[in-house]
Amino acid sequence: MAQWSLLTPHSPETSNIHASPDGLGTSSDHDDASYDPHITVDALFDRYAASRPNATAIIGPSGRVTYRELFERSEALASRLISLGATAGDFIAIMAGRGTETIVAMIAILKIGAAFVPLDPIYPREQLLRILDDCHPKAVLAAKPFVELCRSIAPTDAQLLPLGDIGSRDGVLPAPAARVSAESSSPAYVMYTSGSTGRPKGVVVPHRAIVRLVRAQTYVGFAADEVFLHLAPLAFDASTFEIWGALLNGGSIAIVEEPNPSLDTIAEAIQRYGATTVWLTAGLFHLMVDHHLSAFKGVRQLLAGGDVLSPRHVRKIREAFPHCRFVNGYGPTENTTFTCCFPVTAETWTDGPLPIGSPIAHGDIAVIDEHFRPVAKGDVGQLAAFGDGLAIGYLGQPEQTREKFVELVGPDGEARRCYLTGDLVRQRNDGLIEFLGRADRQVKIAGRRIELDEIEHVIRRDAGVADAAVVAMTDASGNKRIAAIVVATDNDRHLPAPEFATGLAVRLADRLPQFQIPSRIEVVPAFPLNPSGKVDRKHLTALLEDQPSKLPDMPASIARLERQGVARVIEEVWRSVLRCGPIEPQQTFFDLGGRSLQLIEAHAVLQQAIGRNFDVVLMFRHPRLHELASALTELIGSARQSPADRVATPTRWHEPRDRAARLQRARRSR
């Protein structure tokens, strides 16, 4: 074990960020908001349910839910879980979207001393099976749309319980003695991240880490009058901040229930529910600033992160709303959502790349070299995270846990446990930390942490692939993309490269989450090797940059598009957003390498291009160009279209010149 020197939380301007009218706030001067490392999440929630029973805990499309109602419903479900044999130390999976019943389930699971495992319904069946096999849940709680899916994939010894069917009729609430209480060091949830071996890694997070994130903090204010927008997927640890930041401080959660909300839906939810604290991924933040800047009027605290932030967009939000506290947040799942934060003020930042700031309260960091020795200020090193936010480790993977969670000896001779993030950083002269990139093969795209080696592993398992290499690239717009270079097996080398790549992409859709599927697949006869005989990834990346993706020439398809005005508009928008070549009508947005975030952007641009509002769900429901064109043609031609649906009056929208001008205006407005 080597010695280390700590960088401690430093943010003097945030010592008393915000205090609510009833005295709750983040300052340690307020006993009600103090940090107790020994309390559990459910005990702290119960405290607010008792002291503020009639306060609003949840706001959403289904109405308002008070703390008393949330307490009673979670008690009823806890009783039901105990009757099924669940107890402290068990894992209970939740297959559901954002909603009141999901939050009820989380609280109920914690009340019986168990830990919840959020499952993302968008994950392919094969990945869900791997996760369930890994965590061996005692029960699976499923929202009604996913009951049949869970019935087909849940382990045979796991109880399946549909959410929403629990009420007082389920029995008498158990006496406190019937439950085995958890401790603050006990697991609260298991969140799965990408794993380099092809096996997802279950990060086991204790109660203490959640409480540490949202109590007596310095980076934002947590108080009873804050309304937290709940927009993050449950399997994404930003949801930890959104849910418990509210419920463990007496505040409210404003839930966006739509699984794939458009920018319009997000903006409308912020305004309708009066959200005061909002967290967005970097990509979504950029889109909202471009298309719905006014939505942030009334927002007191805006956080963004998960990737590098654009200084232009940060400057724009600061100029529009100087009194809104804007924070650049950084942190791996293994240290519970946030490790460092940088509150942007006129004094701390004027322009240029944004630092990730300094460690938040109840934690420390160190910048170390490959021998775990501290580096000098200004030198590049790996960021190591210490403190109460640390996860317990990786479920069922002791070797990986020992590799990433290590003990280092400090100047005082004390050994302290830390997490090695694998992120390269540098401490500036002013003490703030700059993020420089990854030391390994892990990247973040649209806020999601992705192990390139995991994708390689899955591709190599394909029957038609002899070998594969996966790299991350940055396109002309500055967006990160995943590219796969593959060598086909002898049996498949006769196939044309586009046909082979398309078939492989289709098969990968059953094995990988959508955000992990390469946006570009190139087929090569063999890989270039470096002098040591390893695949020369830098050379592969250079080859991809020198040879832009070439889609097959399809003159007949293009001619059809020329005759179909709406299809032509869609093609222009898609090509503009995705920076791709000509598109066949039967191709889907995702076939072309699109991601959900880009689909949301395309929706915003397309609405302006055709002069009509329409639900983003239409684009998910009709992902193929020709299907979407038919649906939009019917929408535009409907005589029942209300004036409120119009974005702008389209004048001869089918004429190329007007259409192109309108598209350019839409793109410039972003």
Automatic annotation (TrEMBL):
The keyword ATP-binding does not apply. Keywords: Phosphopantetheine, Phosphoprotein. Residues 1-32, 639-670 are annotated as: Disordered. GO terms for molecular function: phosphopantetheine binding. GO terms for cellular component: cytoplasm. Gene3D superfamilies: 3.30.300.30, ACP-like, N-terminal domain of ligase-like. GO terms for biological process: amino acid activation for nonribosomal peptide biosynthetic process; secondary metabolite biosynthetic process. Residues 561-636 form the Carrier domain. Residues 1-18 have a biased composition (Polar residues). Residues 652-661 have a biased composition (Basic and acidic residues). SMART domains: PKS_PP. The keyword Phosphoprotein applies. It holds the Pfam family AMP-binding. NCBIfam families: AA-adenyl-dom. This is Amino acid adenylation domain-containing protein.
